[in-house]
Amino acid sequence: MPTTAVETTTGTESAERAGITIRNPRTGDILWTVPEAGPETVARAVDVARSAASDWASTAPSERGAALRTAARALDAAARELAGLNASETGRPVDESLAGIAAGVSTLEQYAELGPVHRGLSLRGSQLASDYTVAEPRGVAALLTPWNDPVAVACGLIGAALVTGNTVVHKPSERCPRLGEALGEVLAPAFPPGVFQTITGGAGVGALLAQSDLDVIAHVGSSAAGAHLARAGAQSGAHVIRENGGNDPLLVDRDVDPVWAAEQAAMGAFSNSGQICVAVERIYVHEAIAAEFCAALEAEAALRNGNGTVAPLVDGRMRDAVHAHVADALQQGAHAVEGGTLPDGPGSFYPATVLTGCTERMEVMMEETFGPVAPVQVVTSFDDGLRLACSGKYGLAATVLSANIAHIQQAVATLPVGTVKINEVFGGAPGGAAQPRGISGAGFGYGPELLDEFSRVKVVHIAAPPAAALARDQP
C-alpha cells in the first residue's frame, strides 16, 4: 500500500514537540494534532520493552493466552469509540470500521487459543536419546501498521507477537494516530507494564524505531517503506516480516457470465474506495465478453457514484496520487467511461472510475493505485491475459474468473503471487497465511504460521551419560 502522507509540524529545538495534524477526509477540517515521538521517547520505549522481555517470555503460554482474551474483551467493549475515530481520521464508514474491529477481536481470540498449543517438533534419532525442537520468543518486536484497516491488521501482528512471548512497541500509521493511541490505551492494561507500548509518528519515527535494539520488525505498508525496513533489519540482524504493496490482477476468461464477473470486479476495485492491500488493481478480460463486461462494470461504478456509497480517500495527497494515475492513462489513450474527474466540494472524495482501452505501458496498470479505479485491458486469449497478469514487480495476490479447469490449474501453477483466488475476489478460510513475493513483501502474514515468524527454534538433544558415570552416582 502507498506511503503515508500527512501534515507534520517539525520542532526545531526538540523532535519531541513535533506533531501530526489530521484533517477530516470528508470535510477537510482539522480534527486534531497528535504528538510525534522523538528519539528519546523511541529509545525509552525500546528499553522498557527490553527490560520486560525476560519476565514475559517466561510467563506460561496459557497465561499469555488469557491476557490476550482479556485484551479481546476490552477491544470489543470499546468498538463503538474506536470505530468513530476510524471514521473521523480515515473516512471509512462506521459500519465498515466496526466490522474491522470485530475482525480484530476475533483475531486476538484466535491467537489466544493458538498460542498455548504452539509447539516444537519431535525429531527421530537414537532410541536411547531424545531429540526435539523448542519454540522461543525472539525478544522485542516493533510493529508498524497501516491505516486502511488499522485495527484488524494491527491485532493480527499484536496477537501473534505477544502470545509467543515477545514484547511489543507498536507504531500505528500517522494517518490515524489518535485511533492508534486509543487502541493502545484499550489493549495495554491486559498485559504487565512494558509488554505492550504504543508510540506515534511518521516515517522518521519508524526509521528511528527500526534502527533500535530490536529482534523483530513487522510492517504492513508501502513497498518503499518495506524496502527501507528490510535494509535496516539486514544491518541489525532483526527478523523482518513484510506485507507491502500490490498491483493485483483480475483475469476474466471467456466462459463466465460477464455481468457476474463485473460484480466481482467492482467489489474488488471499489470496496473501501480501493484502499485494500489485495484490491483489484488491473483487469484483463477476454475479447469475447469484453463489451458486455465493460458495460456492466460501468453500470456498477455509476450505481456507486449515484448513491453516494464511495467513501473518501484517506486524504488529499492520496487523491492526487490516484488521479495522477488516471490522468496518465487518459493522456495515453484510455477512456474514462465512468468517473475519472476530480469532484467539487470539500474532502478527498474520488469517484468510482472505469478506464477502458488500457495498455501495459500505463502507470495504472504497472503501479499500485490504491483508489477506486478499475482499469481494463482487453486480451485475445486466456494465455495472453495470463502472461500480462504474471508481469510486473509485485507479487501479493491475483484473482481468476473461469469455468475452465485447465485454465484454472495453469493459472495456479503460473501466477507469481502469494495468494491465488479462483472465482471470488475476497474470501477464504480463517487462519489462511501467505508469503508475498517480489516487492510485495516477505514472510508469512496471519494464520498459525505467523506464530513461527515471531519465534525462533532451538534444537535439543538429550543422551544418557556413560554407564560408568551412572554407577559412580549410586549410593
From TrEMBL:
Residues covered by the Aldehyde dehydrogenase domain: 15-460
Keyword Membrane: no
Domain of life of the organism encoding this protein: Bacteria
Record carries keyword Secreted: no
Keyword set, alphabetical order: Oxidoreductase
Listed transmembrane segments: none
InterPro entries, per database record: Ald_DH/histidinol_DH, Ald_DH_C, Ald_DH_CS_CYS, Ald_DH_N, Aldehyde_DH_dom
Coiled-coil ranges from the UniProt annotation: none
PANTHER family the record matches: ALDEHYDE DEHYDROGENASE-RELATED
Name this protein carries in UniProt: Succinate-semialdehyde dehydrogenase
Originating species: Pseudarthrobacter scleromae
